[in-house]
């Protein structure tokens, strides 16, 4: 079996195991809550708790507790819940007035678009500037990079967002918040506009409405900039120190002795070897990226997945939404990590072998 | 003494140490810098004591240090007061979060590194699993689950049957602890575990460990007397740089409306519509956000520099 295939299989097996551990922990915490909270995980579709009197609700809850054996020990309850989860039945949320899973999936493209463009910005830029600075250690370029990266990492996301908004929206009227302006969002919500992917920048083109794409891009500039600055600094710093470490190795000296030009040495040899530590570090911060995307979404009023958080602090939250949101975020982060992992294995044979020996 | 002077040789270390010391000073001297009102009782926020004509009412923020509280008819909150007293809660939160995460991570890492086998397998798998958990989801999950449990427990008078006994509840276990702090600790110990695990693997077969094992030392003694003291340095460095990050995260959560208890974040959220000044002067109300933001940024930078300095100091080979 080729190593890459073995690597892929290994990863695909470890994904459900990780998910299993996390969901056990999550359900373990839910087990500590009163049984009524757990009963709300099995509310039938369309139930409106506001219309029921307290007694009716209590009777209803007791019925659910009996029916789904919520007085049973942990493993039994967990199995019932996990089986429901696997069947795509994530529970009915009275807060959203909707099933949880469709509610999450419907909002996914909004967050995905923001994440996608941010990654397209900060990964190439971070790698380029980090490698460039590292290859000229202690030069003026390097010092300048280190200074800007330090500032980028130190500024709180929400302050950066507000300052950018005050300058470029209120001051200059260049980049407004939200996903689209009023008229365009009316158009997007109308029947004539077909949603192929949910990503506005793509759907605009697919519908033959390049103006929508342009407007969506214009609205994306500030949020993408806010998310990217910190991660650009982080990635750049890792890439820089990886390059510096790589330069001390003997093959670099040997290559230099053979007369290979500095430029091609850095970009052809050192760069590829320094890529793995840089990607590893970005893999570890995928979960943090998720958090900062949500923060930025809330500040710029993008109604993505994060709107569930906002809703849960505005209305009475319910257990299905909370649990669904947690499980959903873990799945998304794991999938992103899988992609990065595969990318690393494709680029670096050492990674493939390492995993198999471990 | 030689080590101390090496630490002070770099200006970054002195700056880091100075900034951290400054925030400790602010926290300790808070009662003198911003005296409590007549009631002598501490509150997170304070109305400005007497602006023009003794009234703290005005539709827009008043210089030098007021922020308009939303919805209470132009009341002014004292920014300086919150800046000073907020240092206390920031330090308390940051230090306890960093300490507890470090302790959990070090224990997990050391035990799995020492034990090996299936113990290591289970523990490191769990560590990897937790790495995939975004903190914001953890915080919301914990906070709202606590609120939900509280709500149901409050209703328990009306409950007929099937209600679980309060002792077995979320609130009974975690009620005394701040749920946000708990969530942050629970979902950020993983890097420490990985770090300590790698360190312990390096020294597990060292002669002094084997000697102690031959002399009959038990697992506990080897872990706590030999392995942890000899592999703890990187984790301490990481904890020092994390203090600032934890406080920043807390302020961010507070700012977007999650009750995380950061007074700095909350007063920024209260004054957020004044961050953008009048049209002819975008920085017209700079005092609403600038002092607090500066404090947050300096707090983060101070602890980061201190961590970097400790790193060079504890690992002389790297510098």
Give the SSE order of chain B as H and E letters: HHHEEHHHHHHHHHHH
Q: Tell me how many strands of chain A there are.
A: 2
Question: Largest sheet of chain B, order of strands side by side?
Answer: 1-2
Number of helices of chain A: 16
Low-pLDDT sequence parts of chain B: 157-168
Query: What fraction of residues of chain B sit in β-strands?
Result: under 5%
Percentage of helical residues of chain A? over 70%
Radius of gyration of chain B: 24 Å
Through-space gap between termini of chain B: 19 Å
CATH-level-2 architecture of chain B: Orthogonal Bundle
The largest sheet of chain A is: 2 strands, antiparallel
Described by the principal axes of the CA atoms, the overall outline of chain A is globular
Question: In sequence order, what are the helices and strands of chain A, one letter per element?
Answer: HHHHEEHHHHHHHHHHHH
CATH fold type of chain B: MetI-like fold
Strand order, sheet with most strands of chain A: 1-2
Average residue-wise pLDDT of chain A: 80
Summarize the entry for a quick read.
The complex is a heterodimer of chains A (358) and B (319). Chain A has 358 residues and is mostly helical.
Structure description:
The complex is a heterodimer of chains A (358) and B (319). The two termini of chain A are 17 Å apart. Chain A has helices at residues 3-31, 35-39, 54-67, 74-86, 100-135, 140-154, 157-171, 182-189, 200-206, 210-247, 250-257, 262-284, 286-299, 307-314, 319-347, 349-357; strands at 92-93, 98-99. The mean pLDDT of chain A is 80. In chain A, 76% of the residues lie in helices and 1% in strands. Chain A is globular and about 85 Å long. Chain A has a two-stranded antiparallel sheet with strand order 1-2. Chain A is built from 16 helices and 2 strands. The longest helix of chain A has 38 residues, at 210-247. By secondary structure, chain B is an all-alpha fold. Chain B has one domain: Orthogonal Bundle (MetI-like fold), CATH 1.10.3720. Chain B has helices at 2-7, 11-28, 30-33, 79-115, 117-131, 135-154, 170-174, 179-186, 190-203, 207-214, 219-231, 233-255, 263-270, 286-314; strands spanning 66-68, 76-78. In chain B, strands 1-2 form a two-stranded antiparallel ribbon. In chain B, a hairpin with a 7-residue loop joins β1 (66-68) and β2 (76-78). In chain B, α5 runs antiparallel to α9 (190-203). The longest helix of chain B has 37 residues, at 79-115. The interface between A and B is large, with 62 and 60 residues.
